[in-house]
Specification:
The chain has 89 residues and is of the alpha+beta class. The chain is 15% helix and 31% strand. The chain has helices at 48-51, 55-59, 81-84, and strands spanning 20-25, 29-34, 39-43, 62-64, 69-72, 77-80. The chain has a three-stranded antiparallel sheet with strand order 1-2-3, with no helix packed on it. A three-stranded antiparallel sheet has the order 4-5-6. Strand 2 (29-34) and strand 3 form a beta hairpin. The termini are far apart.
Length: 89
């Protein structure tokens, strides 16, 4: 059995994470854009403190750890950008 990817299928392996540049929310998702232009989304339900936060509390975030993490002081929540991309810190 041939287990090679189909012709034309490309898979990119992410090894480096750029610093966070913006964070936005929809009703069900959080989207994080990093300096190199990539954006990743995650269900807001993964982050109960953010899910229960107001729009103003969600908007009050700051980069931490040279921009490789995000902190929301109003709800005491931290999110690792590497973890969002499926990497370890």
């Amino acid at each position: 059995m041939d287990t090679r990817p189909a012709t034309g299928t490309r898979r990119t392996v992410v090894r480096d994470i750029s610093p966070v540049r913006s964070v936005r929310f929809t009703r069900q998702m959080m989207y994080v854009r990093v300096e190199d232009g990539r954006e990743i989304g995650a269900p807001i339900e993964w982050f109960p403190r953010l899910a229960g936060a107001t729009a103003e509390q969600r908007a009050n975030w700051k980069p931490i750890g040279r921009g490789l993490g995000i902190h929301w002081p109003d709800v005491d929540e931290d999110v690792s950008v590497a973890h969002l991309f499926g990497l370890s810190d």
